[in-house]
Design brief:
This protein has 666 residues and is of the alpha+beta class. It has 4 domains: 8-369, DD-peptidase/beta-lactamase superfamily (Beta-lactamase, 3-Layer(aba) Sandwich); 391-481, Lipocalin, CATH 2.40.128; 499-577, no CATH class; 580-662, Jelly Rolls. The chain is built from 14 helices and 36 strands. Strand 25 (557-560) and strand 26 (566-569) form a beta hairpin. It is globular, with a radius of gyration of 26 Å. Residues 1-23 form the signal peptide. One of its GO terms (cellular component) is membrane. InterPro entries: AmpC-like (IPR050491), Beta-lactam-related (IPR001466), Beta-lactam/transpept-like (IPR012338).
């Protein structure tokens, strides 16, 4: 067993970083300020903090915008932000600390360390610890139910284990690497089992305290009292949401300041400021290729937790640049680390904006000021338009699964000489929308009106459309063609074409779940054997199906009960809308029964409804699948229209009293 001890001097030297000085500015401060304020004024960014540290000195550390409008608190260098998937770096470090201690080995099988767990898919036995950290485990993606919330969910890990135990892997372990949150949540479980401690307590004791990272804690809504100001999230209309809790702690559930994130990065280039030994540090900085690497498909140079362990243009300039991004729906973040220059850049923001590109702009400016010439862009790509579509594109036409989860139809129009992508929302011609039009290039690639390059590629497993990942200067698989089964299966009668309502909603669910609260399932005549239920699911029986793609993230799996009225969708439960009762004109009192978390009501009349809520009760109203009212944010009186659905959310035994002023139905 080996434990690395950090000298007190090393810790103090990092803790003594000035949090206000700007060393050797050379116009850097002005550049960063203009870049950030431009985004605050023109995009969805609410506030932000930026830190740049080089060779132990703070080149820049400032906050921008208003962190809390109600209290008139400006964002500054002490402001806390949820960092989303940058939390994966801390999870990877927790695992590597256990490797250092001789408790785990990266190539051990996960099941050998979690003997109490059982899995229906026997391939789970082939998953190594390393595969949890480089996205190659084959786990479906994200058990999202309860993952993003406004309250701590102590039962999330139990539901996570129950969900993955009954699921099937997307691919054989180690052969592909679609981005996977589930791997890090399972790593969180593994850390608890191997250490005998709560995950965050182990992280705090073994990593955070030794490194002096005192601002790092659980996500903002889970921290209780806050010693430093927290950046609040505001919708585009100015309404505030409660502080976000991310219950996937290992995958995305931490928060901190931008400066502490740079301090954390210091351990990757300052040996005296590290909790890992030399061999483990080399492993953390190295790419982690999978079996599909180098076979024609784009492949991120994932590391242990890193999104990328190198970026082409910087590598050509002799620099290794490691990158990790994060996004939670409310917060966006990026961390760049350059070990050879002993430099790190952290950008954290509330709201949605192009934070990774902002971080890259700052990096490019710093290198340019130091005479480092970096040639960005792919010089090998032609931008000359071809006079006609090549003959071979025909085999790529058809339906595709998408990295964003929907159903896409790829079509070629030879008369107009274009490739069109259509998003399919239902079986009718009026239920589709064009999302992309591209022109062919003479080298066989395609470009859109923003000059972004798309490629059609294939391998022995299928056909794909790759799209640009600009921050990483590479491509990513955006679409994967859906194979047509030889013997298509039809769903049980009543399953297709139904409106499904989520049955396991909770009082503290984040607004991130609005879009999945109501789902209309459907089939396409020219896509036999598939049921579209949020995602295109290939049916293996009238009651079961799964997305058959291997290269796309967050794949869903469906199991419908024999009645055809309840569906399990990778950890989330739905009920058919026919079971919803009608909201009476005179109002009503509703008591949630045992094991009941929510009650859906169908609205057939227009008017206003006042809701007397229990202490932990919540009311939402949906029209055409869109949430137009949420009592947690909008008050206790809701205007309703015919055809909408109201859902009352709480706990067993909660009573809701609805006073209605509805027009009589005519």
């Amino acid at each position: 067993m080996r434990r690395v001890v950090i000298s007190v001097f090393a810790i103090l030297s990092f803790l003594s970083l000035s949090t206000s000085a700007i060393a050797g500015d050379d116009g850097l401060g002005e550049f960063i300020r203009e870049s950030v304020w431009r985004r605050i004024c023109s995009s969805g960014m609410n506030s932000a903090s930026v830190a740049v540290v080089k060779e132990g000195k703070v080149l820049f550390s400032e906050g921008f915008g208003v962190a809390d409008r109600g209290s008139a608190v400006a964002a500054d260098e002490r402001t806390l932000y949820n960092i989303g998937s940058i939390s994966k770096m801390f999870c990877s470090l927790a695992v590597m600390a256990l490797v250092e201690d001789g408790i785990l080995r990266l190539d051990d099988k996960v099941v050998s360390n979690l003997p109490d767990l059982s899995f229906e898919d026997c391939r789970f036995g082939d998953i190594a610890v390393r595969m949890l950290l480089n996205h190659s485990s084959g786990l479906p993606g994200t058990v999202s139910s309860g993952g993003f919330s406004y309250a701590v969910d102590g039962g999330y890990l139990d539901r996570f284990i129950e969900t993955i135990s009954r699921s099937t892997l997307v691919h054989d372990p180690g052969v592909a690497a679609p981005y996977c949150n589930d791997g890090f949540t399972l790593a969180e479980v593994l850390v608890e089992k191997a250490s005998g401690m709560d995950y965050f307590e182990f992280l705090r004791k073994r990593v955070l305290l030794p490194l002096g990272l005192f601002s790092v804690g659980r996500s903002l809504g889970a921290r209780g009292s806050l010693e430093s100001p927290a950046a609040r999230y505001y919708r585009t209309d100015g309404r505030i949401e409660p502080l976000e809790v991310v219950n996937l702690i290992g995958a995305g559930g931490l928060s901190c300041t931008a400066l502490d994130l740079c301090r954390f990065a210091g351990m990757f280039y300052t040996p005296s400021f590290s909790v890992l030994g030399e061999a483990s540090m080399r492993e953390m900085l190295a790419p982690q290729p999978v079996l599909s690497s180098g076979k024609g498909l784009p492949n991120f140079s994932f590391g242990l937790g890193w999104d990328a362990t190198s970026i082409r243009s910087y590598e050509e300039a002799g620099l290794q640049v490691l990158v990790k991004t994060g996004g939670t729906g409310h917060y966006t973040s990026v961390l760049f680390v350059l070990p050879s220059m002993e430099m790190s850049i952290a950008v954290l923001s509330s709201g949605n904006s192009d934070v990774p590109e902002l971080g890259k702009e700052i990096l490019h400016r710093i290198l340019s000021d130091r005479g480092v010439v970096v040639q960005t862009g792919d010089l090998s790509v032609s931008t000359e338009t071809a006079s006609s579509l090549p003959d071979w594109v025909g085999e790529f036409e058809g339906y595709y699964g998408s990295s964003s989860g929907g159903l896409i139809q790829l079509k070629f129009d030879r008369e107009s000489n274009v490739m069109d992508l259509w998003e399919i929302h239902g079986p009718g011609e009026d239920q589709r929308s064009k999302v992309l039009r591209c022109s062919p290039l003479i080298d066989g690639n395609f470009k859109d009106d923003k000059e972004h390059i798309y490629r059609l590629v294939s391998d022995d497993r299928g056909f794909y459309l790759t799209s640009p990942a600009l921050t990483f200067e590479t491509d990513t698989v955006g679409l994967e063609k859906l194979p047509i089964p030889e013997n298509p299966v039809s769903p049980q009668p009543g399953v297709a074409g139904a409106l499904w309502l989520r049955k396991d909603m909770t009082y503290s669910d984040s607004s991130a779940y609005y879009s999945s609260a109501m789902v209309r399932s459907f089939m396409m005549e020219d896509l036999p054997g598939y049921l579209i239920f949020q995602q295109p699911l290939m049916l293996t029986s009238p009651l079961k199906g799964a997305v058959p793609t291997e290269k796309l993230r967050d794949r869903l799996e469906l199991i419908v009960d024999r009645s055809g009225k309840t569906a399990w969708l990778y950890g989330t439960t739905y009920g058919i809308s026919d079971e919803a009762m009608v909201l009476p004109i005179e109002g009503m009192s509703i008591l949630l029964e045992k094991d009941e978390h929510c009650r859906w009501l169908k609205v057939q009349n227009q008017g206003r409804v006042s809701v007397d809520l229990p202490e932990t009760g919540r009311c939402l109203f949906f029209v055409d699948g869109e949430c137009v009212y949420d009592s947690l944010i909008d008050g206790e009186t809701v205007s309703v229209v015919s055809g909408g659905y109201m859902v009352l959310v709480g706990s067993s035994g909660d009573r809701f009293v609805l006073s209605s002023q509805l027009a009589s139905h005519r």
